[in-house]
Amino acid sequence: MNHWFTYPNIDPIAVHLGWFNVHWYGISYLIGFVAVYLWMSRPAGMRRLGLTRDQIQDFLVYALVGVLVGGRLFFVINDVISKHDWPSYLSNPISFIAVWNGGMAFHGAMIGTFIAIFLFLRKHPGLAFNVLGDEIVVLLPVGITLTRFVNFINNELWGDVCKPDRPWCMVPGPNADIPIQNRGLPLHPSQLYEAALDALTLPILLFIYKRRPPDGVVAWSWFTLYGITRSIAEIWRQADFSWHGITGGQLYALPMILIGAIGLYSCFRKPVHTDA
Known about the structure:
- The chain contains ten helices and four strands; from the N terminus they run E-E-H-H-H-H-H-H-H-H-H-E-E-H.
- By secondary structure, it is mainly alpha-helical.
- The strands form two sheets. The protein has a two-stranded antiparallel sheet with strand order 1-2. Strands 3-4 form a two-stranded antiparallel ribbon.
- A hairpin with a 2-residue loop joins strand 1 (13-17) and strand 2 (20-23).
- The longest helix is centred in the first third of the chain and has 31 residues, at 53-83.
- It is globular, with a radius of gyration of 20 Å.
């Protein structure tokens, strides 16, 4: 069967500056953080948060450290468990922190962000977790969606072999991190599937936010939606490991749906409104 698309083999390095290279991966993270900052630092956001722009920048430093440390640590742990390549990390210690080459685990980054939030809240006891969460997540899908596109550019996180073959599937580049038996075969571009699903959450969050729901509803809505979209995307994504037919990604994502639903119930049960 002929395919509609051919993998474009885009250079993962966006800008070559001698010894210093700017990767698309880093650009996607930068755009994501800028989007969150611009939303939080708008006048209505600052009034609702009770924070200055300097304080919001301070929070984003906390969040950046949480994302980098949590995301990379979780990735390395998952990599060692699924591929048993602990010796390769020991032989090249710089690989433990080589985030510039990609290799970040979303759920680890999320846990790191939660820790950053709680540490920041200790400095600002008058700020509520639900209010801060609401303001963080509205434009979060921008960064997540872009990162999934970059996963495609980086020739990584491919899906399973198309069964039966579908014309929108494509053969990955020669350096793709896929099983040997899948090389040369058309695979689901699961990174793009997930990017589309993540992008769909943006208008939903904006719609919910504009309706001025109780504090925390926007945050827990995103939490629930991500659990749903990630669980769906995992249907086609090549699993690092699985347990009774449930992929590793679904093991992390499915509990998010339950936790998010509990969070939403709590917000509606005892509603608190902090308006701008």
